[in-house]
Amino acid sequence: MANTYNWIISQLECYPEHDNHTDVVFTVHWRRQATDGTHFADTYGSQSVTLDPDAPFTAYADLTEAQVIGWLEDAFGAELLEAQKKALDKQIEDQINPPVVKPQLPWLTVVAPPAPDLSEPSN
Fold it and tell me: What 8-state DSSP symbol labels residue 62?
């Protein structure tokens, strides 16, 4: 099964007032997650964004998740987005086929606790 990817916007930081607008976003805190249906990978960060004076301004209350994700994807560019996906894929691959394992020390033995006595009590 191919991995699926998801963005989560955790928080937006805003200037209270900037260029005659209120609540102008300047930083996006994000997570990007991937799953193969069984295993899960996650990365997070923050990205600065700049108000484009030539673009129409969207009031904070009218922002959509898709719009903010678009800002992130534009800021990252195709190369970095692909690198993020590869890093998430690697996290999942490492869960499936761990590159490092930590087996129990061979000279230690595990002693199982005694089994409970399930016999009927005698009177």
Answer: G
**Domain boundaries along the sequence of the chain:** 4-96
Give the pTM. 0.79
CA 29 to chain centre: 11
pLDDT tens-digit readout, 48-79: 999 888 889 999 999 999 999 999 999 999 99
Rg (CA), the chain: 25
Mean of pLDDT over the chain:
93
24 contacts 48 by C-beta, under 8 angstroms? no
Residue 102 structure tokens: 């930590």
Q: Encoding tokens for residue 90?
A: 């690697």
Question: For residue 51, which of 21, 92, 11 has the smallest C-alpha distance?
Answer: 21
Exposure of 64 in the CB half-sphere (CA atoms within 13 A): 3
Cα–Cα nearest to 14, from 28, 33, 30: 28
CB 92 within 8 A of CB 34: yes
